[in-house]
Amino acid sequence: MTRFATGAEPSGAAAERGAGHDEQSVSQAVQSMFDGIAPRYDVLNHVLSVNVDSIWWRRTARLFAPVLQNPEAAVLDMCCGTGDMTLALLRHRPLNARPVVALDFSHAMLERAKGKFSSPEFCPHGVVTMEADALHMPLSDNSIDLITAAFGFRNLANYEAGLREMARVLRPGAPLGILDFNEPGGLFGKVYNLYFRHVLPRLGKALSGSSAPYAYLPHSVHRFPKPEEMLAMMRSCGFVQATWTPYTFGIAGLYRAVKA
User: Fold this and answer.
1) Which of 174, 42, 32, 44 is nearest to 113 (CA)?
2) What is the spatial distance between Cα 246 and Cα 254, in angstroms, rounded to a whole number?
3) Is 160 helix (H, G, I), strand (E, B) or coil?
């Protein structure tokens, strides 16, 4: 079986050596990269995905509507970035519901998210932003009723540690949703991967002036566990009913599970 990395490995982080993995170096490199692209992050993502990413967020949020519609539910959007997944969740929250917690360790990304959260459309719902490492969340055990993570889990320095931290803060029986990219197979996968690996970095550089984040993106997707391995990892970390639903021909997908 192919061995996948234990976590992300962006340029500038120390390389893995055997079983070793410099998590602090990885975290600092990821944080610096996203702080640097925060001002252009939304425009670039919408252009490069032809706005299909907004469909993925809305579809994911709808699946968790039964939890979101409970005004007392404690909801966490982990690795929230500039807040688009958080906003999709808020559309299903009743007025005066408990605020959604939007957590990310990139200060610049959170600042962009705060601007969106201050919109009159979302002010009545409320969001609490939290600048923190997803591997060490300042949240109590068994305190959260739903966790989502959209396109951020893949950037963690240690995937298994991230899942265990999610399991720690979730209440027993509470759901988890991880939306992230995938490498599709077949002829479509070959064509898409050609675009993903060669065209996208050039487009990213033309639009942002930097190719590094968009060279990192296909690299990080390639390193990310395949669905069957990710599901097995989720089960080993305290989750049951683990499933994967492909989105848009499998270029992305939603991992769902509940804490045992």
Assistant:
1) 42
2) 6
3) helix
Domains and CATH numbers, the chain: 23-39+51-184+226-259 (3.40.50.150)
* pLDDT exceeds 60 at position 214: yes
Can you list the pairs that 3-6 forms with residues at least 24 positions away whose Cβ atoms lie under 8 Å?
4/223, 4/224, 4/225, 4/226, 4/229, 5/223, 6/158, 6/159, 6/160
Residues with Cβ within 8 Å of residue 17, at least 6 apart in sequence: none
Mean pLDDT (whole number) for 145-154: 96
More confident residue, 249 or 210: 249
| 204 confidence band (pLDDT: 50, 70, 90) | confident
Q: Which two tokens stand for residue 256?
A: 């769902």
Cβ partners under 8 Å of residue 174, min gap 6 = 67, 144, 145, 146, 147, 258, 259
Question: If you compute the radius of gyration of the chain from its CA atoms, what whole number of angstroms results?
Answer: 17
